[in-house]
Amino acid sequence: MSLLEKLNPEQLAAVTLPHASALILAGAGSGKTRVLTTRIAWLLATGQASPLSILGVTFTNKAAREMLTRLAALTPINLRGMWLGTFHGLCNRMLRMHHRDAGLPQLFQILDTQDQLALIKRMYRAHAIDDERYPPRELQWFIAGAKEEGRRPNAVEAGDDFTRRQVEHYALYEAMCQREGVVDFAELLLRCYELLTTHHGIRDHYRRRFSHLLVDEFQDTNALQYRWLRELAGPNSAMFAVGDDDQSIYAFRGANVANMQHFERDFARPDLPVRLIKLEQNYRSHGHILDAANALIKNNTTRLGKNLWTSEGHGELVRAFAAPSDLDEAAFIVDVVKGLVGEGLALDQVALLYRSNAQSRVFEHALFNAALPYRVYGGMRFFERAEIKHALAYLRLLAEPSDDGAFLRVVNFPPRGIGARTLEQLQDAARTQGTSLWQAACAGNAKGKAGTSLAAFVRLIEAAREATRSSPLSETVAHVIEASGLLAHYRQEKDGAERVENLEELVNAAQSFVREADLAVDAPIRVTDASGAMDGAAEPAANDGATEDVANEGATDPLTAFLAHAALEAGDTQAAEGRPALQLMTIHSAKGLEFHTVFITGLEEGLFPHENSFNDLEGIEEERRLMYVAVTRARRRLYLSLAKSRMLHGQVRYGISSRFVDEIPSGLVQWLSARDRRGAIDVDRAEWGSGAWAKPPSGVVGAPRATPPAPTWRIGQSVRHAKFGVGVIIDAEGRGSDARVQVNFRDAGVKWLALDYARLEAA
DNA sequence: AAATGTGGAATTTTT
DNA sequence: TTCCACATTT
Q1: CB atoms near residue A379 (< 10 Å)
Q2: CA torsion A574→A576→A577→A578, rounded to 10°?
Q3: What confidence category does residue A750 fall into, taking pLDDT thresholds of 50, 70 and 90?
Q4: CB A130: neighbour CB atoms within 10 A?
Q5: Please, are residues A502 and A388 in contact by the beta-carbon 8 Å criterion?
Q6: pLDDT at site A2
Q7: CB of A357 lies under 7 Å from some atom of strand B
Q8: CA proximity to A375, closest of A678, A136, A582, A88
Q9: DSSP secondary-structure letter at A556?
Q10: A210, A240 in Cβ contact below 8 A?
Q11: Predicted pLDDT at A467
Q12: What angle do CA A590, A591, A597 make, to 5 degrees?
């Protein structure tokens, strides 16, 4: 079968395992996604499964999308009706369908972390809770932790007064969420888990349906996710779990590697032991890089045990550089990158990794001055931006007026003269009458307050709802951002242009959301079997449970589906730029990616491994796994760098080299001196044809210089502008096509100029 | 309601 | 140092 061609023996064994649960230990770069998708394609091709009987679970939407794309290329079978998504997405879908049994309103809204914190603060105010003694963030963490252990307030053990109070706050929080019809991320999972444990009819329905469960990144599952999976796995289901204990780097947010150890015990059946397969052949990196990774990770004590190997050559040695200061470290990297660019390496094949986000500053500064294009990952995502959250809040009010969080967010934004005292009165009224703010506002209106600005707000929302009643989603969005005054507000704000663009982008996002949902859907598919055992409830196979609307993550109307989408998929950090750029990111966000060349920076004790992990062995071992992830991102070339001194919290700190550098055998490492900063030494000429190296170095066929001969601008430099004359650069911000400099012109005064448009010359 | 000041903290992050 | 949240001022 052509599906199975080119699989190595272990991959082949994994893909064609018989119907039993299996744990696939898939090392970095061992073809994990390939095995997962080929397994599904093979199950479909051999008729062992239909798309309806498969449940595929990932952690990120990106991973789910990638699996679906690759799967579609492997099989001619129509994949509609297959459940493939994130834990949260799948739970959302199930809860929408069984909202009644789950005790939720059909249009329940999903709180992201920001919304959740805002709700907690609101609760603190309503109940006069001391936010000094019980910081809101701590409660947020406490609640998430409890839910991830599957504990409701009554199940949390409270040994001390402080914890007892936190539990009380947790209970208040729950009551508030329930009243407002909102669920946080952890709640999606817990509610769904409880739905399955308390409604055996529903549970058995899904158990019968999903004969094959496949889970990606199994080492990242938390306790609740693990229990959810166990609940869904019926007596005849096969669980296919893929993961790598050596790449477990999310313990701090509840991931529990021990789930891998328990797997064999928990998923074995008397007659069917769990199959264990190790994928150790690496298709990504050259030998020296893998040797370094293997040697490093050997220092960890709790491992299932794995050793990566490659049939490719050894490749280059790992290069290391100890810079006198953080500035020199940045300068070193800039020099090396310039050399690589000169050799024709595409810049987006180079990654600059660091332990914590704050470290990017120095690099950004140096790269900006060197006019090297770069892209920083992390930071504000699209759906998290304030203007987008505002627009979404208006939309939420249209969908569900009793959403107090949404109400408060926009009732006076843009400012419309609804002050704090009005709102306090309103909140009092709502509290005493036990209604939502919206209802209280409407009631106030009825009492002859039609002239107030609050009444105007109510009319605004009602008019918008009326005007968009039968509009397509994107028109609803367009109408709302206009009618709410958001667009006008940002248009007149001096730095509002980007926000206006984002709001316009939201309309596009709505449009493509609808388009993609349409593509993914035919008619709703009936899946409930004839026995109709949707729980023993009196309801005749309730219409909210019997059909699965494959679109819109199970929601019934496009607006609610879009709002769920916005909460569950926060979107990209920033739009990708046109030209290739150096990739800057934390090691955590590099997981799953690969690059021709990787720089691992800041290799100093205290930074990496981070000092907060010094206390216990587990902490250090997680840091070491992080280092392992970093090393295994590199295909061909790996640089390690450290700074003997660096500016930290406003003070110079002198560091010593990270233990992780020492744990790499010295025979694999070539230390560089400041002299050979150019780093273009020992280039393996065999590499020139291999894709990553776009063109030969001589620039014969117009080698794409990632940096077109753009001049380098520095603060303090004198420049000339065609219209404004001569001046001095006094500040700079942004990067790539957003890069701007502030120039103090002799005659024209101080101005901000976009480098892409203002044709500045050195003067 | 915007502007300015002050104090405190400063891993990692997806959903 | 730099960023943020929050408080106070204007």
Answers
A1: 10
A2: -160
A3: low
A4: 9
A5: yes
A6: 84
A7: yes
A8: A582
A9: S
A10: no
A11: 94
A12: 50
HSE, side-chain direction, 13 A CA sphere, residue A162 = 8
Using the CA of A62, give the nucleotide whose C1' is nearest.
B14
Specify which residues A213 forms β-bridges with.
Answer: A55, A239
Token pair 């479909």 in the structure block, residue: A44
Find out whether A587 and A247 touch, Cβ atoms under 8 Å.
Answer: no
**Which of the residues A221, A247, A349, A468 is marked catalytic?**
A247
pLDDT of A235 > 80? The answer is yes
Burial class (CB in 10 A: 0-12, 13-18, 19+), A453: middle
Cβ contact A89 with chain B strand, < 7 A:
yes
| Cα A335 off chain centre by | 32
Residue from A112, A187, A216, A343 carrying the catalytic annotation: A216
Tokens 């939502």 belong to A436
Mean pLDDT of A607-632: 95
Q: Which two tokens stand for residue A206?
A: 């899904």
Look up residue A435 and give its two tokens: 């209604």
d(CA A292, CA A624): 12
Smallest Cα–Cα separation from A469: which of A482, A458, A459, A479?
Answer: A479
Residue at token pair 């955590």: A588
CB A520 within 8 A of CB A51: no
What is the CA A122 to C1' C7 distance in angstroms? 18
A570 sits within 7 Å of strand B by its CB: yes
Averaged pLDDT, A364-385: 92
pLDDT on residue A699: 25
Residue A288 CB partners (closer than 8 Å, separation 6+): A314, A315, A316, A317, A318, A668
Of all nucleotides in the shown strands, which has a C1' nearest the CA of A131? C6
Tell me: pLDDT of A761 over 80: no
CA-CA distance, A690 to A713, in Å (whole number)? 34
Q: Cis bond leading into A414, ω under 30°?
A: yes
Active site residue A359: no
**For the segment 622-651 of chain A, residues whose CB is within 7 A of strand C:** 647, 649-650
Q: Two tokens at A88?
A: 């949260």
**Average model confidence (pLDDT) across chain A:** 86
The CA–CA distances, whole Å, from A716 to A743, A745, A758, A762 equal 9, 12, 18, 11
Model's pTM, two decimal places?
0.84
Annotation says A33 is catalytic: yes
Burial A90-112 (b: 16+ CB within 10 A, else e): bbbbbbbbbbebbebebbbbbbb
Q: Which of A484, A499, A491 is nearest to A415 (CA)?
A: A484
Asked if strand B comes closer than 7 Å to A610 Cβ, the answer is yes
Structure tokens at A15: 């893909």
